[in-house]
Amino acid sequence: MPPPFLILKITLAFLAGLAAAGPLGVAADRLAARRSPSQAGSTTVEPASPTLTTLRVVTGIVFAVLAARFEPAWQLGPYLALAAVLIVLSIVDAVTHRLPNAIVWPSIAVGLVVVAVLSGLHAGVDRFAAALLGAALFAGIIGATHFTYPRGMGRGDIKLTVLLGLAIGWTQSELLAATVLVVYALIACSFLGLVHALRFGALRRPSLQVPFGPALAAGSLLVIIGGPYLVP
Asked: 31: closest CA among 82, 107, 101, 84?
């Protein structure tokens, strides 16, 4: 794509992110309001949601970077939708320590259909196979971690990694490359989760519960965006 058109595309995506931030914030607030923060218990971190300005900046930057990452519209659209869903889920998880099934399960179902259809029309069966492997591998590892150490993460995190693994794997046409990216995602998510836990002093308070959803979302998006550099 010629540079002027790429700049225009990135600019429009940034503006779309600014416009989408308001509705996304409203959706997150309504979902979070269904569960009172006081119900989270004394062993959870204090709930915190971003200001509208922060949400607009973050959403605009994420949309713009994704626009630079994915050139074909049939690829960009699904990842913009994924980013919007992850932003809502991250806010809700940060406030309520829950990843609502009302968002996660439909997102997985729609994601499977979109990946299957677009793989058949454009990407090919190899991309679809890589997406399924990514979903199974990411969710399998997080699921094993949950059953080994239940306090480390919840079942909602397992369900979220099905969606994230699907999106990560779909960026590749080779199973080995998809596997490598999932490993990178695990490393990135674990690092961000540790930083988040340290921020709230989890090491000094072992009983403290810190939501892992935002780290999963951020780490996975970083790997999706950096995929071409991580797996040439």
From this structure: 101
Separation CA 116–CA 199 (nearest Å): 40
What is the reported pTM?
A: 0.89
- The dihedral of CA 68, 223, 110, 26: what is its sign? negative
What does the longest C-alpha to C-alpha distance in the chain come to? 55
**What are the tens digits of pLDDT across the range 23-64?**
999 999 888 887 644 444 445 545 556 788 899 999 999 999
